[in-house]
Automatic annotation (TrEMBL):
GO terms for molecular function: heparin binding; signaling receptor binding. The gene is Rspo3. GO terms for biological process: positive regulation of non-canonical Wnt signaling pathway; Wnt signaling pathway. This is R-spondin-3. The keyword Acetylation does not apply. The lineage of its organism: Eukaryota, Metazoa, Chordata, Craniata, Vertebrata.
Length: 243
């Protein structure tokens, strides 16, 4: 072992030196050179830093730099995030998106152009005028639809979501709300009164029928006694012997 190489290293180094830092790493760690001023030293990390990608070899695992326009990458030829001013598309960083795609400034990616999509029209509403459905002959009816897909920046704009047209109805008078309510209340009271009247009449009828029935039963009980008393009086009457 070279005199400048130490076996008792810190920070995941398998071998190191006082001047160059880590020279090799422990298993599964990545070796990467970090610049400090004019000097580069080796460090061992569990994952590669931003701007680098990891490669594994039988003898050592290394971190290699991404392309200059890549912020993070999977391999040197496949970026996963671009630096400012570039848009990601299929692993590449582009200054301008291809035809048929648009730049998404939020995700910094080239995405498909989304056009607006609307649902089917609803049925036409009842014919109204100033919010009323009576008291007029000509009014308006409307129909609406909903937006189911909003457009992207370069997509086709959304169409109108409501339509109106003239309509003609058979003219009818509007019933005043207070008068109509009063009439309904009076009808309800009258109905209740009639029901109460019918109930009282039925009760009186039942009472009269019950009284008549009881009277007939009493008459049936007393008539035999009266006939018996009459016969007795007739038998006790004095016999006329003047003739």
């Amino acid at each position: 072992v070279h005199p400048n190489v130490s076996q008792g290293c810190q920070g995941g180094c398998a071998t190191c030196s006082d001047y160059n830092g880590c020279l090799s790493c422990k298993p599964r760690l990545f070796f990467v050179l970090e610049r400090i001023g004019m000097k580069q030293i080796g460090v061992c990390l569990s994952s590669c830093p931003s701007g680098y990608y990891g490669t594994r070899y039988p003898d050592i695992n290394k971190c290699a730099k991404c392309k200059a326009d890549c912020d993070t990458c999977f391999t040197r030829n496949f970026c996963t995030k671009c630096k400012s001013g570039f848009y990601l598309y299929s692993g590449k960083c582009l200054e301008k998106c291809p035809d048929g795609l648009e730049a998404n400034n939020h995700t910094m990616e080239c995405t498909s152009i989304m056009h607006c999509e609307a649902s089917e029209w609803s049925p036409w509403s009842p014919c109204t005028k100033k919010g009323k459905t009576c008291g007029f002959k000509r009014g308006n009816e409307v129909r609406v639809r909903e937006i189911v897909q909003h457009p992207s920046a370069r997509g086709n704009p959304c169409p109108a979501t409501s339509e109106s047209r003239k309509c003609i109805v058979q003219r009818k008078r509007c019933q005043k709300e207070g008068k109509g309510k009063k009439n309904r209340e009076e009808k309800r009271k009258k109905s209740n009164k009639d029901e109460g009247k019918e109930t009282r009449q039925e009760s009186k009828g039942r009472a009269a029928r019950r009284q008549n029935r009881e009277q007939r039963e009493n008459n049936n009980k007393t008539q035999p006694k009266k006939r018996k008393a009459a016969n007795k009086e007739q038998n006790l009457a004095p016999i006329d012997t003047a003739h």
